[in-house]
Write a structure and sequence with these properties.
about 425 residues, alpha/beta, Rossmann fold, about 40% helix
Amino acid sequence: MIHRNLQSLIETALEDTPAIFLRGARQTGKSTLLKTIIAEGHPARYFSFDDLTTLHAARSDPQGFVTGLPHYVALDEVQRVPEILLPIKAAIDNDRANAHGRFLLTGSANILHLPTVADSLAGRMEVMTLYGLSASEIAPRSRTMPWLEAAFSANITALMPAEPLVDDISLEERLCRGGFPEVFDRKTASRRSAWFDSYMTTMLERDARDLTRIDAVQHLQQVVSLAAARTASIVNFSEISRSLQLPLTSLKRYMNIVEMLYFTTELPAWSANFSKRLVKSPKLHITDTGLAAYLLGANPARLRADRKLFGQILETFVVMELKKHCSWFDEPLRMFHLHAQNGLEIDILLENMRGELVAIEVKSGATVSANDAKPLKTFASLQNAKLQAGIMLYTGDSIVPLGENVWAVPISSLL
């Protein structure tokens, strides 16, 4: 069984927090992780709302259902019964002294976006996100320090693991495979495509309807497919609305639904003026590159031939790998992109709570030039002490200095 790096953080949080909400896309391994935590010592009893008897009991009498639960309980797929959160809040408040670690919840939709439940467990629940398998979970390699710690300390040599990669999977194959655990059991591309097809059907025909009570599977499918084609691009709602011939209000609703279901994620725009971050356009990314490749009908051979598409999906891969690293890092980090009026663009900006920055550009080529490093050098000259490191992730093999505090670093450092 693959060890998930988020496990230790969940176990630590259970020691001082009444409820943990482990959210993430369906089939990313939430149930398996929850059962692992129970098997290794947490006293919770497991219930799943994918079980129809349990689901009907909770929906018919949420208060009575919660009252009848054991003190420590794990509830899987709570997005199917969002009305259960208020009784959980009451149960916590009625016995706050003994509430630590009492509720371990999982959800395949981000129910915190729903106004009726957004504030239900404020101050009582810690939220964590489990993404698909990271490259470092699939094939763990020893490191002198975590990748993000090395980046923020400008310890560039420590970005590279101490061990070489042992698998012979090409980068294009890695992108097409993605990070869903079950995909790794599929030996051929056709079997992986069959899995993704079934996954899309389940998510759009059941989970979307459960969550929103709408019947718009065709429109949601179109929005997800178009998001895959636009991955690593700045969101332009007007252009997407015209492409799909959907009213803008409907499009924004559908975009919100596919984000709630973890098909997509948005990278906010960064600005030195904090208030301006709220009005600038975000960058859109599909949360799994295997799903993106499936939706686009792309295979490794096509990615090798179409370098523009390869570059898009590669940038999304790096964004999602870094999101996974951030999810288990011991310091809160925020991720942005930069698209300035003067034409300066940076693919990824990482910012810690002290306002320190790491700027990252993603390059699909195996060689770098001084011109490639120009955005990082320009940003470094503007930010001075705030920029800890400028890093160009490329497909080559060596760490190369490109200027003061700016380096080219192999993408394989993340693997």
